[in-house]
């Protein structure tokens, strides 16, 4: 079993979610950041793709992104600004 921190978990979940909407090469680019240990960069890159493609992000995923512990102020602001550019979708329970 592989242990991962909260930002890695969120980055993997976001990458998996986006993989059904975008080209495989974009998902691979996000995954490269994850492999390099840059989960916050992967999240930022994924949010940029979602914003540019108009891909809605579920509200629960938004909450998880903004509640990642130990995020720098710069990363938190970056993620918050990016999320404001992305449509919200509510998933049925």
Question: How would you describe this structure in keywords?
Answer:
93 residues, mainly alpha, two-stranded parallel ribbon, 5 helices, globular
Mean pLDDT: 91
Class from secondary-structure proportions: mainly alpha
Q: Report the total helices.
A: 5
Distance between the termini: 28 Å
**Percentage of residues in helical conformation:** 55-70%
Q: Which spans of ≥5 residues are poorly predicted at pLDDT below 50?
A: none
Dominant shape: globular
Topology as H/E string? HHHEHHE
Please tally the β strands and state the result.
Answer: 2
List the helices and strands and how they pair.
Blueprint: H1 6-18, H2 24-35, H3 39-53, E1 57-58, H4 59-66, H5 73-84, E2 88-89
Parallel strand pairs: 1-2
Helix pairs in contact: 1-2, 1-3, 2-3, 3-5
Overall description:
- The structure is a single chain.
- The protein has 93 residues and is mainly alpha-helical.
- The chain has one domain (6-87).
- The chain contains 5 helices and 2 strands; from the N terminus they run αααβααβ.
- The chain has helices at residues 6-18, 24-35, 39-53, 59-66, 73-84, and strands at residues 57-58, 88-89.
- The protein has a two-stranded parallel sheet.
- It is globular and about 25 Å long.
């Amino acid at each position: 079993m592989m242990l991962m921190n909260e930002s890695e978990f969120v980055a993997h979940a976001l990458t998996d979610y986006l993989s059904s909407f975008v080209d495989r090469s974009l998902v691979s680019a996000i995954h490269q950041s994850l492999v390099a240990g840059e989960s916050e960069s992967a999240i930022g890159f994924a949010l940029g793709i979602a914003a540019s493609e108009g891909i809605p992000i579920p509200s629960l995923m938004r909450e998880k992104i903004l509640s990642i512990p130990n995020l720098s102020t710069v990363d938190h602001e970056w993620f918050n600004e990016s999320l404001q550019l992305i449509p919200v979708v509510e998933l049925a329970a």
